[in-house]
Design goal:
homodimer; 17 helices
């Protein structure tokens, strides 16, 4: 176990990094690592058992419970990464804007004015978010050395979307109107959020996260020119502040096929690709050395096992064995997903990833 | 007025086509034509007045009312195209699957089995959909010669989505599960829908439509490899059946940035681009001669007028004055859009389109 209390600060480079971390850094790997977004969740009966006793926020805020549900999919499937169980809106709550889940997130007093932005606090993660850091420290002790601990935060635009709209939205017209009509207020909100997110992710790295993912889920609702003006500068500043040698930074969004080159400009180490852009196209556009994450269509897990195997293999071939790659879904796993499908996917990615590399080393992939 | 009763059959080529039709065919134009998806709608007070007396389906099914609301935005703004007021689910209703609006569309008996597919009828448009054809015939007489009459239908995948899910959906897991687990039933449904849509669009062309648009709105939820296997063959067959010389076929979907090359493979004349792919990128990928439609972010219409002007001009420059282009939004106009914004956009596209072309002809665009 590497320095469990200060993972990000004094990393011992003589102990080999977990497979997932090496893949994210473009180092040689023996097979393709895999984890799934929302892998701790409703599709697992053991998760539903915990949730039948405790509500969502209680699980997020109680380290022992959060640790338990984070570990559940690791025990069952042998994923290469364990992602902290939490919610992207936890730091928003800590900024002084109460969030409820009903079941989707709702904010009672949406942020609309300069005063609203000013009233938001910049929490000290070691105080207001200590339960998250404690969860990470316990996880880092409990996880096998070969499983990477992944921290995360919501992207500032995605958090702003909930904070301005007050709930999820179809068109995000309130947010976009603020952006176009009150750019000063909009950018003040984004700057505050970027600071909060940076503090939060840096604290997660200090607490032992071996990789971090920024879920900028909603950034895909923007045109490329708007992303460049209204999101990229803020994400770039977060990456600059958080970046720690040996701790890869993964940037993910949904429907971001038009934004990939701009996302790369953020300086993030790994770009997450959703299922609507082919890995071949992403590889072509971002270059052979760019670490990519993704991108199986989540609904394929409802298909017969032979189709799951076929699709997983197609992705491995498309992304290219030489190019750095972390296997994932193109978005979060859905609650009705059959467990056997997940088990088969993990087995298949590990086996095919290894077998295809061995075949290639011998001079021929079939 | 050109052969009002048989527009698609015996077109007189000596009378000049409307600007929009010429642009769709890559012919020289004096300026850039513009129309907006959902241009007859709630943002217009005169539309809201009609709807305060008649429900949505009554307006769709009563030619005098449908004609009136179709003409409202033409009178007000001077668009280059008038799109039939109707709903993509009208032919589904005629197939024997009742549709209600509540306010989103709902289907009481979703299609899930081979028997369900078999039970669907192939309506004769001249009988079950005669009110649509009558609306088009009246419109063709009433519209000024320079305004193109645009017919439309929903794409088979988009119709299948509503028919299988029973309502709109976040993940479309029922539809995708059918696709992966019961491909024979899925394709039977798509084949039936493709026939119905082809009959319907061909009848619209016969009734006077001078261009047709296939709204395959939901096709953007698919990965490129799934689009190729599960949608493209059906859309290609529709294009083949409907294509009529002089009547351009426009193919549009939302979130289809990953599918553009495949959409072009359908044989459609014009590819609609949503706001999430830049026109420059679409032009680069589809070639300098490909007629494109789009792609202003609909929320930009909530911005101050000078920003609307700036963005409209950016799109004209990005798509290139030499490349064929029809200006549109990247998706439907939203109900709260200010009327002044629409008026300004139309004026601006026409003026800039003309001015930039004149400047270019003189040897320099500034």
């Amino acid at each position: 176990m590497i320095s469990p209390e200060g993972g990000g600060l004094e990393r011992l480079r003589d102990v080999e990094d977990p497979l997932l971390v090496r893949a994210c850094q473009g180092e040689p790997v023996e097979t393709t690592p895999i984890w799934l977004m929302r892998q701790a969740g409703r599709y697992l009966p053991e998760y539903r058992r915990v949730r039948s006793q405790f509500d969502f926020m209680t699980v997020c805020k109680t380290p022992d419970l959060a640790v338990e549900v984070t570990l559940q999919p690791i025990r069952r499937f042998g994923f290469d990464g364990a992602i902290l169980f939490s919610d992207i809106l936890i730091p928003v709550d800590a900024m002084g804007l109460p969030v409820r889940f009903n079941p989707g997130p709702e904010v009672d007093s949406p942020v609309r004015t300069a005063q609203d932005v000013q009233a938001l606090r910049r929490p000290d993660p070691s105080v207001e978010l200590s339960f998250v850091l404690e969860t990470l420290r316990i996880l880092r002790r409990e996880l096998p050395a070969e499983v990477a601990l992944i921290g995360f935060a919501g992207g500032p635009f995605t958090l702003a979307a909930y904070m301005v709209e007050g709930e999820s939205s179809k068109d995000f017209l309130l947010l976009k109107s603020l952006m176009y009509r009150e750019p000063v207020i909009y950018h003040a909100l984004m700057e505050k959020l970027s600071l909060v997110v940076s503090d939060y992710l840096s604290a997660q790295v200090e607490a032992g996260a071996q990789a971090v993912q920024l879920f900028d889920t909603w950034s895909g609702i923007l045109s490329p020119r708007d992303y460049r003006e209204f999101v990229l500068p803020h994400v770039r500043r977060i990456v600059e502040r958080v970046k720690t040698p040996g701790v890869p930074f993964i940037l993910f969004g949904v429907g971001t096929g038009g934004l990939l080159e701009l996302m790369k400009e953020s300086g993030a180490d790994v770009i997450g690709i959703d299922w609507r852009t082919s890995m071949k196209e992403a590889r072509r556009r971002l270059g052979p050395d760019q670490p990519l994450q993704g991108n199986l269509e989540p609904a394929v897990l409802y298909a017969p096992l032979e189709i799951i195997r076929e699709r997983a293999r197609e992705i491995l071939m498309e992304v290219g064995l030489q190019g750095p790659h972390v296997f994932n879904l193109g978005h979060g796993i859905t609650p009705e997903t059959p467990i056997e499908a997940v088990a088969e996917l993990v087995r298949c990615v590990h086996e095919d990833g290894r077998r295809l590399r061995e075949a290639e080393a011998k001079g021929g992939v079939t």
